[in-house]
Amino acid sequence: MKLEIVTPDKHVFSGEVISVNVPGTEGAFGVLKDHAPIIATLKKGVIVVIDENKKELAFDIGGGVVEVLKNHIIVLAE
Amino acid sequence: MANLKEVRNRITSVSSTQQITNAMKMVSAAKLRKAQSAVISLRPYADKLQHILRDLCSVADPSQAIFSTQRDIKNVLIIAITSNRGLCGPFNANVVKKVTKEARETYKDYKVSVISIGKKADDFFRKSDLHIFGSNLPRRLHMLYDNLNYESVASVASNIMDNYLEGDFEKVILVYNRFKNASVQILTSEQFLPVLPPDTDGESKLSTDYIFEPTKEEIVEELIPRSLKIQLYRAILESYAAEHGARMTAMHKATDNCTEMIRDLKIKYNKARQAAITNEIIEIVGGAEALKG
Asked: Residue B245 falls within a domain, yes or no?
């Protein structure tokens, strides 16, 4: 599963991941492999990523939007 | 010959000018690289955002969103983006000319106001008879360049959007130089508000069923302001990169001209020196002849 996190100023993260937890405006949710396509807005919070080496990474965001399509996750963060 | 000294002084002054223009060229080259990388790093974000918006617009009708409804146009706002500093060829003059032209020709039947980002446009429009808009906009927009980042540009953009919503104007245009490469800038004027619906080309009727959280209308409402902020940020970054490109080219030409001038002056100097020496010899020989006789 491929994850990309981009902000207007830079590419924050790009790579293979096992799971992603994002702070949706309607409540936080996790994305695993083969998740249904979704577009959701995000609120201020933390994105928790578990990468292929089972390492946990955290990114602070101030809102944004996430799109999941065919095991490709794009997070546009601020 | 008094001329000799004059020419020598000219040579000194021209070569010190050359040093300055050469230094400015170097500085601009370095800044250009930085500005260019900022433009490039914004691109993935802008493209992805555009992509998501397009996907959304194929399922949700964006024309109902607050920023995309067409209203009767009475007041037009033109945002002129220039640099803070001069010495970059026709860069700023082009923007100023274009804005004036838009105001006097394209939108002559409407009430046009101008806001300027960058001191150069500010100086010009303050003196011109065009109406300057800015009663409740942040002052001193040229300060943006001191620390160019997304947050500060975003706050300016949302300020403009607020004013738009309050009905101060019905159409907003951006005029700026788009960066093509170091020596080419493309003067652009594009519509900022109301938002033009993204090109769906008719072909990409969304193939996948997305889950929307919250509803797609709400997402559109949330994404459009964001894409507007990005649009303004991108325009400013492009203009910033273009400015340094323009200055680099202008200073390169100036340096070349200096070299040319110094060459001409050197020839002139040597000629004058030769003439002086010849004159002296003639005087000495003439004097010696006179003594003999």
From this structure: yes
Range of the domain at B261: 2-26+250-292
Model confidence at B57: pLDDT above 80: no
Residues of B engaging A, defined by a Cβ cutoff of 8 Å: 38, 41-42, 44-45, 48-49, 52, 55-56, 149-150, 208-214, 216, 218-219, 222-223, 226, 230, 233
Mean pLDDT confidence for B107-121: 87
**Residue B209 is nearest to which of A26, A37, A40, comparing CB atoms?**
A37
Looking at the complex, report in whole angstroms how far the Cα of residue A54 sits from the nearest Cα belonging to chain B. 27
Alpha carbons B268 and B289: distance in angstroms, whole number: 31
Residue B84 DSSP code: S
ipTM of the complex: 0.82
The answer on pLDDT for A23 being more than 70 is yes
